[in-house]
Amino acid sequence: MKRAMLVTLVATVLALAAVAAAPQAQPVQKVVFALNWFAVGDHAAYWVALEKGYYRARGLDVDLVNSKGSGDSIAKVDTGRADIGLADAVVVIPRVSQGAKIRIVGAVFDHTPLNIWTRKDTGITRPKDLEGKVLAAPPGDSQRQLFPAFAKLNGVDEARVTWLTIEPAAKFVALAEKRADAVPDYTTGQPFWEKAVGKDNLVRMPWSQFGFDVYSMSIFASEKTVAERPRVLRDFVAASYMGWRDVMQDPKAALAIFKKRVPDIDLSLIEPNMMLGLELMRTERYATHGIGWIERGKMCKTVELINTYMPGMPRKVGCDEVFTNDFLTKIEPPKR
User: Fold this and answer.
1) Is the distance from CB of 87 to CB of 142 less than 8 angstroms?
2) Alpha carbon 281 to chain centroid distance?
3) CA nearest 219: which of 68, 42, 40?
4) Side-chain-side CA neighbours of residue 82 (13 Å)
5) Residue 286 falls in which region: left (phi positive, over 0), alpha (psi -120 to 50) or beta
6) Which of 187, 239, 310, 314 could lock 54 by a disulfide, CB 3.0 to 4.6 Å apart?
7) Which residue(s) pair with 134 in the sheet?
8) Domain 115-210: CATH architecture, name and number where available
9) Whole-angstrom Cα distance, residue 64 to residue 44?
């Protein structure tokens, strides 16, 4: 009897010890991710990561919310309405100068898609031609906010450029209906612009051809998230770049997921839009270091350009206060 009681007691102790030693399930972490725009091909990877459970496998409950440009997504993160966001690096930098507590934690496009779209009938072929013309964009649009730097770099008298304030979805209409002479928008938006303006009448002005080759679309987070939720941030970034890896590997499958998650998208436009974005990511840097890796030299040149040409900067920003690679897990792109 005593022996049986002893065996039972030992078994109970061992069982309790095993429970204590077993890893405890982590509580699900809510993450609000502020996209920079309405649904476009640049966002497919995050819906893929959601659909395939990459976020969930890391204990993350991710909510994707749209914004009206990089200025809007930055405002959401900086005020605590979102934890992590998607924004153009060249808008993040002046916002840091103005006191925003945010930091870039990974790149999306390794090459810049910054660009201005216009029509052949406007006669615009170079930045100087924008003088005396009307440009249209939402106030939070990254390129509208960055235009003063682009103008100064290219000798454009910004006072001679008129801005028409519009909603994001009205960009195409503004140019097509000739309410504006030019509209800043990424090169990846080409299929949307061809549909709106006509392929033969469409003219693009890539900023990289006029001295403005900088870091662009990036994932950023609040300093609060960086300091207080480092594991969540690292897991979110890794899952997101796994989504991008899968988009690169099988674009058709990614588009099917995107359409399932966001039924209103027009795949005839989203597909070429997404493929143009992927071309900006198929680089030796990403092949060597992983998707999203930021080259310090290029980022410092980006920061220097903004410090030099962007008006109204309260202070010059230091390169290393803008970004970090510390939250990156090496996610290799698929081999070509």
Assistant:
1) yes
2) 12
3) 42
4) 25
5) alpha
6) 239
7) 162
8) 3-Layer(aba) Sandwich (3.40)
9) 11
What is the b/e burial string over 169-191, where b = at least 16 CB atoms within 10 angstroms of the residue's CB? Answer: ebbbebbbeeebbbbbbbbbbbb
Mean pLDDT of 28-40: 94
Structure token digits, residue 92: 């993040």
Q: Which of 311, 305, 313 is nearest to 211 (CA)?
A: 305
Task: Count, in order, helices (H) and strands (E) of the chain.
Answer: 14, 10
Cβ contacts of 113 within 8 Å, gap of 6 or more: 186, 187, 188, 216, 217, 276, 277, 280
Phi, psi angles (nearest 5°) of residue 57: -60, -20
**Burial letters 294-319, b for 16+ CB under 10 A, else e:** beeeebeebbebbbebbeebeeebeb
Choice between 25 and 249, residue whose per-residue pLDDT is larger: 249
pLDDT tens digits, residue range 190-224?
999 999 999 999 999 999 889 888 999 999 999 99
Single-letter amino acid code for the residue at 82 = A
In CATH, what number does 29-111+215-322 get? 3.40.190.10
Residue 60 is encoded by which pair of tokens?
A: 């993350």
- Distance separating alpha carbons of residues 180 and 171, to the nearest angstrom: 9
